[in-house]
Amino acid sequence: MAFTRATGKHRARSRMSRGSVRVAGAATLTATGVISTLAASPALAADTDVAAAQTGLTQALVINDSLAGTIDAQADAQRRAAAEAKARAAAKAEAARKAEARAQEIRAEKERAARTAERERLNAFQLPIAGSYVTTGYRAGGSLWSSGSHSGVDFRAASGTSVVAVGTGTVVEAGWSGSYGNNVVLRMSDGTYTQYGHLSSIGVAVGQSVTPGQRIGLSGATGNATGPHLHFEARTGPDYGSDIDPVAYLRAHGVNV
Description:
This protein is of the alpha+beta class. It has helices at 15-31, 36-40, 42-55, 57-123, 246-252, and strands spanning 134-136, 153-156, 162-164, 169-176, 182-188, 193-202, 209-210, 215-219, 229-235, 243-244. The longest helix has 67 residues, at 57-123.
C-alpha cells in the first residue's frame, strides 16, 4: 500500500537550507556592524561554518576585527597624544609661573638694594668742597674775627667753585648775613646745623630740601674775607654762637678731613 503525506502539510526544510538562511542573516548583521549576535549564538556559529567557504563570512569577520583593532589603536594613540600635550602644557605653565616668580624676586631684590643704597646715600656725609682741605682751623685767634676767634673752618676754594651740602637737610637761611656775606644755613637730618659763608652766588631757597653732594652755591669772597674761600661751620642751633668743631663733626659722620 502506498502512503501519502496529508494534504495541507509542508515538508520541513533540510539542514543545509536552514544553515544557508542563518549564514545569510549573519552576513547581513556583519555588514551592519552587529557582530556580537554571531558570537552569542553557538548554534548559529556552528551552522555558519558549513557555508563560510561559499559566503566569504570568515574573511569579512577577519577584516572587521582588523579594522576594529586599527580604530582602537588610533584611539589609544590619540588619548596618549592628548595626555602628553596636556602634560607639556602643564609643565610649560609651571615653568612660566616659576620664571615669573623668580623675576618678581629679582625685581624685589633690586628694589631693596636700591632703597638701601639710597638710604646710605642720604645718610652719608661729605666735604663741602670736593678734594679741598682746611686752611684755617677752628678757634684760631686773631683780629680778623670780631669774636676774637674763628667760629668755623676755612676750606681752600677758588672763586666760583661748587659748594655742596655735606648731608641731607633743609635750607633755613639763604641770603646776605653781614660778615659772612652770602651764606646758606642748613638744618641737617640729625637736628644739627651747617653754615656755608662768603659765597659768590646762592643756588637754593629757604624751605628747600637738599641731599648730600647737592650744589647749594659757588664759593667767593663776599662779606669779611681777605680772598676767595669757603667758611664752614657746624652748629647745634641755627644762630651764631652755637658752633661746634666742624672737623670733629665731619669725622663723626665718616668724612675724612
